[in-house]
C-alpha cells in the first residue's frame, strides 16, 4: 500500500463523534502511515509527542518537503519528571506548528494540556483526523503548484517592494504591443528575474540567520525555511511544465538559477579568496594536471567551438586544477571537464568552480571512483527502454549500440 492509499484510509466521521471510535481510527491511520504498531493505550503512546512529530515528518517527505521536525527523543526515560514534561511540551508545540503549516485550521488545533494532562483527548483525536483530511487533500493535489498553494505565502516579499525590474503594467500601457513576441519575451524574462531575486534574497537571509546562530526561522518549520521550500517548489513546477506566463528560463539566467539551486552562490560568498589560494597552489605537474591537459582540447565538440575561445580553455584548466587541489581524494576524473565547459557558457570562472564543487557533492562516490553506480544505472535505464520502447532499443542494436548510450544522450 503506498502512502497516498494510507493517507486516505480511515473513516471520515460525522460532526457527532464517539471518542473511543475516533481513537481507534487515529491509531489505525497512524500505524499504517508510520508502519509500526503502538504498544499500550493511545494517550500514553502519544504523550511524548514523538509519534506526532514522526507522523508530520512522514507527510512532509510524501509531499517533497526538505524540512523535517527533530523531536526530543527519550522523554519517557528521563529520571526527572519535569524534564520529561518539558521535552514532551516541546514536541507537541512543534507538531502543532507543523499542523498550521500543512493547512490545519486553528480551530482544529488542541491545547498542549489536552494531551499532556489528558484533559481533552477528544480534541487531540479530532486534530489528528483533521490532519488526515488535509493530508488526503494534499495527496490528491498532484501538481507542485497545487500543493504549495495550500499555505498562504509570507506577508513580506522583496517582490512587493520597489525594485529595479520592469513593471508589467507599464510594459503593456506605455510602449509595447502586449501580443508581440518581443513583449511576451520581455515580460517572461522580468517574471523569472523577480522569482530568482526573491529566491536569492531568501537564501541570503538564511545565511545571515545561520551566521548569527538563530536557527529558529531557518530550520524545520521555521517561516524562512518554509518560504525557501515554497520558492524551490514553484521553480521546480515551472521547469516541469509549459508555463505560458513564465516561459523557459532565459539563457542569461541559467547560470543564476544553477548557482542558487545548488547552493554554490552561498558557498562562494562564504569562502571569498579560497579559489585564488587554490590557483596559487599549482607548483608542479601531478597526475591530475597531466590528465587535465590531455582532455582540455578534446572537450568541446566541433559544433560548439564557434562559441568557445582559448581563454575559456584556460579558465577550464584553472578550474579543474584548482578542484584537484580542493578535493585531493578525487583529484580529477574524466567527465568533470564537460561539466565545467557547460558551466562556462553561463557563468564566470569562480562561479563555475563552486558549481562544480556542489555538483560533485550531489553525486554518489561510485559514480566517479569505480563508476559502478553509473554502470548499474545505465543498464537499468537500458532495460526500461527495452521494455517500454522496444522499437528504440532494436534500432540502437541495429546501429551497433548496446543501449547504454541512451542514458548519455538523454542526459545531454
TrEMBL record:
Residues 248-412 form the Rab-GAP TBC domain. Residues 20-135 form the Calponin-homology (CH) domain. GO terms for molecular function: GTPase activator activity; small GTPase binding. Gene3D superfamilies: Calponin-like domain (1.10.418.10), putative rabgap domain of human tbc1 domain family member 14 like domains (1.10.8.270). Pfam families: CH, RabGAP-TBC. This is Rab-GAP TBC domain-containing protein. The lineage of its organism: Eukaryota, Sar, Stramenopiles, Oomycota, Peronosporomycetes.
